[in-house]
Amino acid sequence: MEALEQFKNERIEYVHAVVEHAEKCTRWLSDFETYVDNARQERVEQYYTRIVWRFRELGYEDQDIHVMRSRPESMRDRDVTERVWKRTRPVLQPYIDIARCKRLDKSEATIIESRKALVNRVYDKYKRTLRPMESVYGPPYELIHAIPAFRSLIYTSLDVPLQEAACDETAQRLPEYIAAFKDRLKRRLTRCMLGAGASTTPRPTDSEGRLGLAISVFVLKTMNKWHNHVCFGLKDVAVHLATYPHVSPYPYDTAFWVAMSESEGMESGDTILYHSRPGSTVVECLLSKVGLDPNIARPEDLDRLDRRFLCERCSYSNWSPRMPLDLAYTWRNAATHGIRIHTQGNERPAWRVLDGEEHIVVRRAEQFNGQNRDQLWSCNHCPVHRGYPRSRQAILRHARSDHHIAEPQEDIDFFDTYPEARYGGSTVSLSQSFADAANAMPVCILPALAG
User: Fold this and answer.
1) Tens of pLDDT along 383-405?
2) Residue 215's closest CA among 271, 276, 283?
3) Of 207, 205, 231, the residue nearest 219 (C-alpha)
4) Are 266 and 109 in contact (CB under 8 A)?
5) Which whole-number Å values give the CA distances from 205 to 202, 210, 212, 294, 358, in the listed order?
6) By C-alpha distance, which of 334, 173, 335, 146 is closest to 241?
7) What is the pTM of this model?
8) Please, which residues have CB within 8 angstroms of residue 257's CB and are 6 or more apart in sequence?
């Protein structure tokens, strides 16, 4: 028994010694981890301080520079070598520029607006050298202001008056800047499609590839989903960016335009551009209803058909008691409706194309409500119609008689002067359209409306 007690006491002493040693090691490890973490934090702060110093050398102020602290690229555990600076500067600089632009837009509003007006005049002179369609569909003033070369003219050296000659000199490279923007936009949209798992295999005969198809649906998402904008293909996105600032009460902010003018990987502030798979699914359904191949059909093909569609999911699910369940949508508004309303669950979209009589009655109701888009066309060979858009038939006659073009082609010889109007107007109820037609005097139906 004595031997057993001795053995137990020895083991207890041993266990106490081990526990005591383990506690010392744990405290040491904790202290060491704290030391390593503090050392790392110190190195990160040193890295951040050196990056700040580099941007100070470029003329930026601390109140703008420190916006980069939320960016992971400014908080690295490494030395600021020339190679690191060369990679880091273009990533962080746009965010600092945005902060400076926003600050000066408020604090130096008079000077900034006068400089923007000077840049606008120079840009207007450049647009007068372009064909009408290129001028109308060109980048908006807001994007030109965000191009680094023009951004520097507008927001730096405010104590020195900006001369028009400096703007003219910078404007000599506008074709290069605009071409670079278009290339970045294509890459940005392609990356959006890849991120959503969509195919980006180009069609051999089409330089736009799948970006030119009607099923390539993109959404510019804002803080309010009811102000989101849906675009169909590369051209639609470009046209939207060109026209949206002039027609919307909710313009995109400075961060958005700087992101559009910079690398395609930059975040675009509160506005997010993404590829919509639900929208693509809706367009595929609509294409099948009108007999078009989704692998080759372009937005223009659906625009030319100009049919109206009824959402059959709404007809049996009362998603909004305040809205009629038989609204007749254009194909663009149908896709937008599907994205906003029917994105929950796995149920496939269900749409019906209106028959001939329904189509005629709905189009008459739309015209009665003032939704007539026929007076919006311009000639692409002369600027005479830009300020006074005409009907499609008038422009076709002009192209044939004045330019001797036997078969004028849309977007080559003539174009839609106000493409943003494609999204204008409200949808009409099919049943209400029939009720109104029954109570109205007989009206002559134009053959074009029955198509």
Assistant:
1) 765 556 788 888 889 899 989 99
2) 283
3) 231
4) no
5) 9, 11, 11, 16, 37
6) 146
7) 0.79
8) 142, 143, 145, 146
